[in-house]
From TrEMBL, chain A:
Keywords: ATP-binding, Nucleotide-binding, Transport. Pfam families: ABC_tran (PF00005). GO terms for cellular component: plasma membrane. This is ABC transporter ATP-binding protein. The keyword ATP-binding applies. GO terms for molecular function: ATP binding; ATP hydrolysis activity; transmembrane transporter activity. The lineage of its organism: Bacteria, Pseudomonadati, Pseudomonadota, Gammaproteobacteria, SAR86 cluster. Coiled coil: none annotated. SUPFAM superfamilies: P-loop containing nucleoside triphosphate hydrolases. InterPro entries: AAA+_ATPase, ABC_transporter-like_ATP-bd, ABC_transporter-like_CS, ABC_transpr_LolD-like, MacB-like_ATP-bd, P-loop_NTPase. It comes from SAR86 cluster bacterium. Residues 2-224 form the ABC transporter domain. Transmembrane segments: none annotated.
Automatic annotation (TrEMBL), chain B:
The keyword Amino-acid biosynthesis does not apply. It holds the Pfam family FtsX. This is ABC transporter permease. Its main location: membrane. It is found in: Cell membrane. The keyword Cell division does not apply. One of its GO terms (cellular component) is plasma membrane. The lineage of its organism: Bacteria, Pseudomonadati, Pseudomonadota, Gammaproteobacteria, SAR86 cluster. Residues 249-372, 709-825 form the ABC3 transporter permease C-terminal domain.
Amino acid sequence: MLTFSAISKTYYQPDGDIQVLRQADLHLPAGQTAALLGESGCGKSTLLHLAAGLDQPDSGQIMINDQCASDFNDGQWNHLRRETLSLVFQQYHLVPTLSVLDNLLLQARLADRLNPTLQQHLIDKLGLAPLLGRLPHQLSGGQQQRVAIGRVLMHQPRLILADEPTGNLDEATSHSVMELLTNLLKDTGSSLLMVTHSPAMASYMDRQWLLQAGRITPVLARDT
Amino acid sequence: MMWVFVTLISHYRRHPGQALTMGLGLISGVALWVAVQLINDHARSSYADADQLLGAEARYWIRSDNGLGIAVPDYIGLRRAGFDPLYPVIETQVRDAQGRSVAIIATDLLALPVGNGLGSSARYSNPFGASSWLALIQPDYQAWYPQSLATQLGIEAGQRLILASGERLPPALIQTQTQQGQRVFMDIAAAMAILGTDTFSYLGVGQLSEPEQLRLAALLPATLTLVTNHQALDLAQVTESLHTHLTALGLLSFAVGLFIVFNAVRFSLLARQGTLTTLREMGISLGMLSIAIIAESLLWSLFGTSLGLVMGYALSQLLLPAMATSLQSLYAAELGTLIGIRPTQVLLAFGLSLAGVVLALTLPLWLRARASIRRQRDTTAQWQLDQRGIRWMALVAMGLLGLAATLYPWLASIEQGFLILALVMFGGALLLPWLVLSLIEACARLLPKQQWLLRWAVSDALAQLPHLRIALMALLLTLTANIGVTTLVGSFRTALGDWLETRLAADIYVQVKSLDQEAIKRAPWLRGYSPRIGLDLRWQDRPTSIRGLDLNGPDTLGMVLAQDQGMPDQQVQDQALQAWRLGDGPVIPILANEQVRYLAHTPLGSMIELPTSAGLRRFEIIGYVHDYGNSSLAFYLPSETVMAHWPAAELLGAGLWLTEPSAQIDPDWLSNHLSALGIKPGQWVLQGEIKRISFAIFDRTFAITATLNTLTLLVAGLSLLTALLAVHQQRLPEYAHWRSMGVNFNQWLQIVALPLLLMLAVTLLLSLPLGFSLSWLLINKLNVIAFGWTMPLLWSWWPLAKLGILTLGIVLTTLTVSVVRVRQTLPTAIQQLAGDSG
């Protein structure tokens, strides 16, 4: 689903260049989940940005869904994000003026991919039924993240890129959200690459990689 | 403390564009207000200077009853009798070698009272300061020209103007700061020699105690009269309305500027919300933060005021010529060509801009003080809070509009009129956000669920409204003012045109003191002739004209009375006009201009007493006529009646009707034929020319209004641009996330542009009834109170359409600029989307 081949990325700063990725490789098969671990500032988010087309590598090749995305222009990336990818952030990024239901359906509507059966299934599983008419600011952090996850899954993307999705939540809520996410991924068949520095959250994933000194090292590979 | 301030200020290093827009808002608001203020103050000080010209602040004049002037021995006799504060004046019109009329005024500078007059406490000074006045009174003498007159006559410094008599005026000195009017000023000895006269036009008299006044009056020869000088009062009175109008426009500009400041401060606080909250979280007290913010406001005020003053000064210099010409045309008031800025004006401008910034800061700071630190991070809760604020604003708006309605029946002065206007306009402005909010909520309820993008766009208006509402309110104010003034000007122009059509029925108007009437009647190329006679006097302590009309003149036969509310129907008025023509009986019917009705508060049917040669005589007002542009009161009677009661009435001129249309007549042929009748070039003017001049004066008078209106609209546009740029900058992370979900540019544009257009539509729609109310008040109330003129209110859709197109253009331009800015910055925002977590 997602392959990085010899990806390098350097940030040029006045007080010295920072090479965050050095010939980094990874391969995430379709339908699998993976966690990317590493210390703060090691380049985890950069790698995620490169995978989402939010930033460009200095060298190397990125393959997404068997397409070489390294040379994509802005329009092609936008199309890819609309059709194939979904992003989940620590900050939820719900549209504050839209109701929970409208937020939940937003990305699926954009991709013209509404599925009433999946909609009802996700609402039930995420426990959002009593909250559908509310506005985002009327929800707790955990509830908002559940809506954000529901929005991504409703879109049925081939690949989900998640950047510390539970970073704003307490431990109990984090576990509950991760259980939900991994269970629902089985229903949709999406792949997931999640950046985290929490081994506990990483344990929900099929694979675990460690990003260190610009290189990616596998630390766990579980057969699914 | 210092580092708190530095932390706050450092925001602008990263966002220079925000600093620029904030500065522009402040500067433009201050500049517009300062420009109007400078012009008004300058005009008023010019009147004061003009009053002091030749010691005209003197309370009395001594004039001759027989029109022969004042003999030198009479003047010397009065001086010898101990009346020092007396000075002689010659005021006359001459023609130069090219036939142009030149006004001359002359006095004896050494005779001007300087403060130690007999029993007088008045102080007088040389009106021209110390500027080389010795050269003025010594041979070869000097002739002082105002700059505009010198330009008009083509005279340069040192040149001598040659008169038609062959005499030459003394060498010219061009003055820039004096208010001698469009007149040449010179020493009286030089004037007497050049003009070949041995009498003075009149004597000026300084302040006298009552016994001195009585003694002087008793001492005067029988042919001389001591009269009170009303000149200063008259000029101040007649121009006050115009200045009140301008002040109101200036305050409107400032109010719009204030809205911009409010907006700018709000955005700068909003943009630094994170920093402010972080500082609070670090233990900085709200008090210390407030001090830092106020210190920043002081800096902004200093900056805005300094540059605003410079810009305002430049603008006032640009607007002054139009204003000066209008005042000269309408009131014969002269303005100097150099505007000076006084320290008080600088302090006032600084004080106002500071007050504006502090006022703008008060509400956000108060809200910040009320909100907990945790809530300050929650922007969504803030726009919810804003909606409550909008509902409170609507309540205040209702209160203001209710107050305006309550005060309306007592409306009797210009100031009250402007207060009601302000209440209506600001009431409307405060109501606007609530109307927009209600519309959004209604749309959100009514739109079908399938129209999700449209629903999203409508709901996005809720997020945009808190940021844009101030700019929309400023836009509403300017649109309302524009509609009101445009309708007023349009109605006035149409009324003036219609009035000129009926009033200027003759083909040619001549202005002469004597005419060979028999020769005129015999001229085969003339089919009609209507002489006008008259005199000027004072009635109700105001300058008043008595005019005698030829009953057989085509213009008198076609005379139309003013039709206004409270006037009898046409048939009754026709009967009244018939009675006026007969003009006999114990009480003589008289017609008056509308100014008598509205400025002198003399209703129809009033019995009035006018001073005639046989003493006070009673007249009954039986009708009014329109008399646009006249600042004096006027009464109209048949010529015979005027001659019977005022034998001293003079021929003022006549209207001539040609047998052929004037357009088909060769000007040279006409000039020759008129000369043959004793009417020289310069003494006659074609009807079309009068109309052209009238409209030129009219257009110049309202040019300054139109300019201020356009500038205010542009400032409101700038306010909107500032708001849009700020809102887009603040929402960039949100837009970046939309983009990361696959929202394409067209969808994004729909979501952000539709709410703006929706809000603009509500603003435009609300500006229509408000603008119409404004024009109704201006035409039917304020104009009548100020000038005594009535006119029908005429709606014209084309100027409104033009205004709508201009506004749409401004809004689309601001939208385009902000959209381009978003497109430039969005890629960076997308890169920053996930923060730097790893």
